[in-house]
Amino acid sequence: MTRIKYRGFFLECKQFQCNCHHSNAKSRCVKFIVSMIAFAAATFASATLVTKTADLRYQRDVNRMVFNDNLGVLEEVKGKLGMISDSLNRLVETPAAQPNQAYIVVSIGDRELWYKKGNEVLFHTQVATGTGKTLVSSASGRSYKFDTPRGRLVVQSKEMNPEWVPPDWHYQEEALKKGLGIVRLERGNSIRASDGSVLTVQGANIVRQHPGGSSEVLSISEGREIVANGNIVIPPYGTAQRRYKGVLGTRRLYLGDGYGLHGTDHPESIGRAASHGCVRLRNEDIEKLYDMVPVGTPVYIY
Known about the structure:
With about 300 residues, the chain is α+β, with helices and mostly antiparallel strands. The chain has helices at about 25-65, 75-85, 85-95, 170-180, 285-290; strands at about 1-5, 10-15, 105, 110-115, 120-125, 130, 135, 145, 150-155, 155-160, 165, 180-185, 190, 200, 205-210, 215, 225-230, 230-235, 245, 250-255, 260, 275, 280, 300. The strands form eight sheets. The protein has a five-stranded mixed sheet, with no helix packed on it. The radius of gyration is 27 Å and the shape is elongated.
């Protein structure tokens, strides 16, 4: 038996106990033990990295989960608190694709998408992917990274004519573009504008009440948010002014955590790094893909 000191530890070698009195055998013994220690250290480091990655993914998912959701926000919050498995665990535990199952491949670098079955390409088109830019909120100091996630995802649901419920960072982004501030309108409160009118929430709408007593329901669209006193107004969730039609195009294949493959109202962005993380397709392309792809289809993004 050979006793070896390695990085402060004493190790007893029985691997070559029959002939450890030979120098070559001792050398092999040392190499074997050192390799096992290196393997154990690498395994520990890998486990630590996976744990940290899961934590970072969790924080990002919480920031992003309302990106394309509305009434499902509360359910996803519950999920992040432990009632549903973490997204990284779902990714790891999702069963592998069956040999004859069709799948989607998205190349972030090439900004291309393929729908394949084996080696056969069933559909191919250009896409737009995340910009990779970071937005820092002047109000909270929170930063948002607009990357398209890499890895293996799955089509969880399909939706026709989806509506976009913008998160708070959208209003921060628009305010920065236009040199405006931001102000949040809460239910039960009101905002008095410089012209004497008052903005308030009535039911599912934000209305402007004029000094003369008349009122009007305010309309919005992307880039045409409500502005009062030099500030973009952030509507409360659940109001019609917090839902944008057409931004996600005509179809969406939802991948979870706020991400999806969807159409766009900016077809000129296709082929560029232009989205906030989702994969954009031209409306005619997502309509074709929508009809071809069933729920449960694997999506590989690299």
